[in-house]
């Protein structure tokens, strides 16, 4: 390391993460130890309360909406603000020595190991939506081709399909996951059968959620992808929720493409995510926003063989070649991966499942409350959907917040007669929060029956 780089690295290390920000002292952002421990029991409440203490959430607030936005632990917040201050104080050095190509290469290697793929099969994106758009709009279609999706998918995955219909004349085919048979499903077989029934000789792509944001159902991804591959159909999985909530190995899932979020259960900042695409498929999926070489040549028609841009364009990193980068977001993403690796994905998943099981069991014991997600660990994880009889879900949210400062959300789609509450159970939640939620719902349910 040359002298200028040494000086800059020392300068960055000494930056106060939140100096100058009101109400939050730099001391409150002291990073936790790199290795937070592993093998802790999911019900070791003292340990997990300590982990929950690594978040900046106000003491009187319970955050149970990680499914929309996961609040970051202090080490991630510190990394993000360190990056902001360092590039605002010395942009050239930051871009040269900190957030450079070498850093991004290391980040892809770390991310690839975390999600179970090769480093050349993953791109850093701004969110899940971007990956879903790449995987759908980047393919070439002909009129009459069919794309399968479900009526419990997120609009970010479905609307690119409708755009393909408007642009190319493809036909969207909807798998109906509404109805009592799916809420909760008795087994994965009914879900697999519904997808199989929708497949035809014209099906070119199946786009679906790994975990439905509407009800928390974990879909049988491996089985659906195996059926598709037998028929030569491509698969694109909306993975907004599993990364950070569940152990993930996209290679074992057998999907062709997988789009994930960094700002939800992975606890990174906004504008972080990834797009996984098998290396043998990359030449078939066009980048949508692109500033790299085309056919190995730059804008003047000169060959770029042997350059860094040529190497990037030859892998999934081509989907990153879209202009300016958010240095601070990448720093936060890197720190968030370290935080999860330190705790271990296995321990985090076990904790999330423990909390969700407590909530499901507690809700089912309350008169007037219906739980819509399965107890089967193959079909559920950290999201719990439910309904309180006689009380609008938005009113449930409001009362929980006003009375207990407990934050959950509702998911409403009147087109499919769906209107429920949804609680996200992640590692910033402790047993006391669960008790408060169950007590609050019991009180609201009594009011609904009165």
Would you write up a description of this structure?
The protein is of the alpha/beta class. The protein has 15 helices and 13 strands. The chain has helices at about 5-15, 45-50, 75-90, 90-100, 100-115, 130-135, 155-170, 190-200, 220-230, 250-255, 310-315, 325-345, 345-365, 395-405, 430-450; strands at about 60-65, 120-125, 145-150, 170-175, 205-210, 235-240, 255-260, 275, 370, 385-390, 405, 410-415, 420-425. The strands form 3 sheets. The protein has a 7-stranded mixed sheet, with helices on both faces. Strands 9-10-13-12 form a 4-stranded antiparallel sheet, covered by helices on one side. A hairpin with a 4-residue loop joins β12 and β13 (about 420-425). The N and C termini lie far apart (about 70 Å).
Secondary-structure topology with pairs:
Layout: H1 3-13, H2 45-52, E1 62-63, H3 74-89, H4 91-98, H5 101-115, E2 122-125, H6 128-137, E3 146-150, H7 155-168, E4 171-175, H8 189-198, E5 203-209, H9 221-230, E6 234-239, H10 250-253, E7 257-261, E8 273-277, H11 308-313, H12 327-343, H13 345-364, E9 369-371, E10 383-388, H14 393-404, E11 406-407, E12 409-413, E13 418-424, H15 431-449
Parallel strand pairs: 1-11, 3-4, 3-5, 5-6, 6-7
Antiparallel strand pairs: 2-8, 7-8, 9-10, 10-13, 12-13
Helix pairs in contact: 1-4, 3-4, 3-12, 5-12, 6-7, 13-15, 14-15
